[in-house]
Amino acid sequence: MEMNINLAVPILDLKRSFSEIRPEVFGALERIFDAQSFVLGSEVSTFERHCEKYLEIPEGSAVGCASGTDALLLALMAADVKEGDEVVTTPFTFFATSGTIARLGAKPVFADVDPDTYNIDLEHAMSKITSRTKIFLPVHLFGQMCALETVRDELSNRGVKIIEDAAQAFGSSRIVDKNIERAGTVGDIGCYSFFPTKNLGGCGDGGMVVAKDPETADRLKKLRVHGSGTTYYHDEIGINSRLDALQAAILDIKLKHLEAWNEERIKIADYYKLLFKASDLHDFVTVPKVLDGNRHIYHQYVIRVNSRRDELMNYMNENGFGVRVYYPLPLHLQPCFKYLGYKEGDFPQSEKLAHEVLALPVFPGLRQEEQEAIVDSIKKFFKN
Ligand SMILES: Cc1ncc(COP(=O)(O)O)c(C=O)c1O
287 in the Ramachandran plot: left (φ > 0), alpha (ψ -120 to 50) or beta? Predict the structure, then answer.
């Protein structure tokens, strides 16, 4: 084992980008503590309006909530998803995508993923749509969008709504017929997570739902406060899922830097691509592929390693490089979803990815010499 402590690189170092915004953040904290107003209020509505501008969606369509998980739950509730309904989605994602469907008594119906983008295979997904399907729930995984324009008309004709899980894709976009389409704004409802590790991350849990239809947006605003339009009067049964003023204020400061930070992520990814090419590792490692027209914002930079992935991960970690597996077990094989009746072999691409993916450090402030050390170490592992 070679301990290279000087070049230790964590999977994520939030301190580097925080130093840029430190005075602004502490200014906002003072403002909020002086006001002693901590939940929803003007800090949250200001942030919502700024998100709408950034995403180029109508005023009033963004609804802050307590987490990305709640964003999904609220979206499904606003779409009236209930027991017996089917929701077609991907098994290769974070648990919340399906956990929320199941919590409402609905049934997650999985389709396999595309081996190049790791996103749901749209053709396979369409083959799973039946008269019981209420929602199609794709995930823009790791920061790259799915080509939803290829399925949206057919889904709409068949009465199936689209809820996008854009938890990892705030600022990710795609050119369609010369227009820019942004992750989370293509379908009927879009969901974002502001968990601290996200590319737009707060100082605790936070999330947002956006809805094109004003009635749905209004309903979401009620659902996040126990279904109440007027305080203590409840039109329906909602949940408690409010965004804190502290989170909103910090996210609003970060939102101003997001474009620059996303651009930095793209540059880091380009440099990894160059380094892998130069190190002649193509027999061992496949770098992420970007669909034509996509602006992949690399919430995660995830390579495929065709053999010895776990050994490589341990070797890298022992040498001071934070690398991780997102995700080691596809959702159709999770013990809690046994009742759905899936078995190993049902989704071969997802299962293969679970054995091959490896996320490398990617965050604003990551230095080129650190990337060089990471790729050097991977090269040593395979070629020594
Ligand atoms: C794809 C995906 N969906 C949903 C979520 C849930 O978001 P949160 O952790 O904010 O509840 C996450 C976050 O980890 C995610 O990555």
Answer: beta
Say how many Å lie between the CA of residue 193 and the centre of ligand 1: 6
Stated length of the chain: 384
Expressed in angstroms and rounded, the spacing between residue 92 Cα and the centre of ligand 1 is 13
Alpha-carbon span 15 to 26, nearest angstrom: 15
Tracing tokens 């956990």 back to the chain, one arrives at 99
Helix (H, G, I), strand (E, B) or coil at 196: coil
Summarize pLDDT for 248-278 with one digit per residue, the tens: 999 999 999 999 999 999 999 999 999 999 9
> What token pair was written down for 348?
């071969």
What is d(CA 209, CA 52) in angstroms, rounded to the nearest whole number? 11
Mapping DSSP to helix (H, G, I), strand (E, B) and coil, where does residue 35 land? Answer: helix
What residue ranges do the domains of the chain occupy?
16-252, 258-383
The string of pLDDT tens digits covering residues 155-209 is 999 999 999 999 999 999 999 999 999 999 999 999 999 999 999 999 999 999 9
Ligand 1 centroid to Cα of residue 280, in Å, is: 35
CA nearest 72: which of 87, 61, 60, 57? 87
pLDDT the model gives residue 1: 45
Report yes or no: 67 and 239 within 8 Å, Cβ to Cβ. no
Residue 207: CB within 6 Å of ligand 1? yes
Specify whether domain 258-383 bears CATH 3.40.140.10.
Answer: no
CA dist., res. 198 & res. 259, Å (int): 14
Domain 16-252 fold: Aspartate Aminotransferase; domain 2 (3.40.640)
Q: Report which protein residue has its CA nearest ligand 1's atom 10.
A: 68
Which of 69, 93, 199, 325 to probe ligand 1 with, by most ligand atoms within 8 A of CB? 69
Instruction: Give the chain's end-to-end CA distance (angstroms, integer).
Output: 13
Distance CA 296, CA 273 (A): 14
Say which amino acid occupies 327.
Y
Residue showing tokens 């689209």: 162
The closest-lying atom of ligand 1 relative to the alpha carbon of residue 205 is 10
